[in-house]
């Protein structure tokens, strides 16, 4: 893991040519982004998706959720509403809100849902339920690659085949167990 320097890192940056690997629990400390939809990609701090910066002279530098001071620039720790661009959020504040909101996750300020939701998913804000099946063909703007069809279906389904380049399971690629 390039963050904690311990063995067993299983996530590799999805940027072509980058060999940074990390543990999922180490990702926030290393400012890595994991996208929990579409192709379920992960990015190191160097290649993570970035929001476009919109500066407004009258824009308040407070988190619209907790009302504490937020950075004036978009960063890993501070996100902006892509639709109204007047709202800033601490990553941990919008994450808490997303986990409680589930599939109904509009912007807390302008109440716009789809563009806001897709931007937050792209920036690595997971929801309590996967929404990949709701937007299977959506392609985000910016530097992100196309999102593929979801690898899992609705909430209760999971993959039944190993897609690793080299499958290490003694039972082979098709082997599954009831609990995982």
Automatic annotation (TrEMBL):
Keywords: Ligase, Metal-binding, Zinc, Zinc-finger
Occurrences of domain PHD-type (ranges): 1-48
A GO molecular function held by the record: ligase activity
Keyword Zinc-finger tagged: yes
GO cellular component: nucleus
Entries under InterPro entries matching the protein: EPHD, PHD-type_Zinc_Finger, Znf_RING/FYVE/PHD
Signal peptide span: none
Keyword Zinc-finger recorded: yes
Gene3D superfamilies on file: Zinc/RING finger domain, C3HC4 (zinc finger)
Name of this protein: G2E3 ligase
Organism of derivation: Dasyornis broadbenti (rufous bristle-bird)
């Amino acid at each position: 893991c390039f963050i904690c320097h311990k063995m067993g890192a299983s996530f590799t940056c999805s940027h072509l040519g980058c060999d940074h690997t990390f543990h999922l629990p180490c990702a926030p400390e290393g400012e890595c982004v994991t996208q929990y939809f579409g192709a379920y990609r992960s990015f190191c701090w160097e290649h993570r998706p970035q929001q476009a910066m919109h500066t407004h002279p009258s824009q308040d530098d407070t988190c619209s959720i907790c009302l504490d001071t937020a950075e004036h620039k978009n960063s890993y720790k501070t996100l902006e509403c892509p639709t109204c661009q007047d709202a800033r959020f601490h990553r941990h504040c919008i994450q808490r809100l997303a986990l409680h909101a589930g599939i109904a996750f509009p912007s807390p300020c302008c109440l716009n849902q789809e563009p806001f939701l897709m931007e937050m998913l792209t920036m690595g804000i997971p929801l309590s339920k996967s929404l990949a099946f709701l937007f299977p063909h959506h392609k985000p703007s910016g530097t992100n690659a196309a999102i593929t069809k979801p690898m899992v279906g609705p909430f209760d389904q999971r993959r039944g085949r190993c897609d690793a380049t080299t499958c290490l399971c003694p039972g082979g690629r098709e082997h599954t167990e009831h609990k995982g």
